[in-house]
Amino acid sequence: MRKEIVYTDKAPAPGGTYSQAVKTGNMVYVAGTCPFELGTGNVLYPDDIVRQTRLVLQYMARILEAAGTSLEHVVKVTSFLRNLGDFKAYDQVYAETFAHEPPARSTVEIGQFPPGMTVEIECVAMLPSSRETAGQ
Length: 136
Description:
By secondary structure, the protein is of the alpha+beta class. It has a single domain (3-134), classed as CATH 3.30.1330.40. The chain is built from three helices and six strands. Helix 1 (49-67) runs parallel beside helix 2. The longest helix has 19 residues, at 49-67. The radius of gyration is 15 Å and the shape is globular. The two termini are 26 Å apart. The mean pLDDT is 95.
């Protein structure tokens, strides 16, 4: 199996030595995605867990689209929260995105993020089968 690096300018560019996502076999591994403004890297919506979660999930959807899949095919999510006290608000936004057959998930409190940042999310998704793509 070979690996393919996935990149889109519709989500924050990597700020270090990593890729937005990597495809291998029928899987896509999306790196931790943050609520950064495109082009500047500034944290958007400082300290607003609801707006940041919504934005990060939108960025993840764009990365998955660039990889040839979608949020519908996500099988595992790992979420990093600055404060687990924000879990309820975060989970409500998350539930809007993954209302039907939600993926497996782990949520971890980080405690220290760049100033104003409340959430970072990574995921693993499957690529749609040829049968699914033919039906679209």
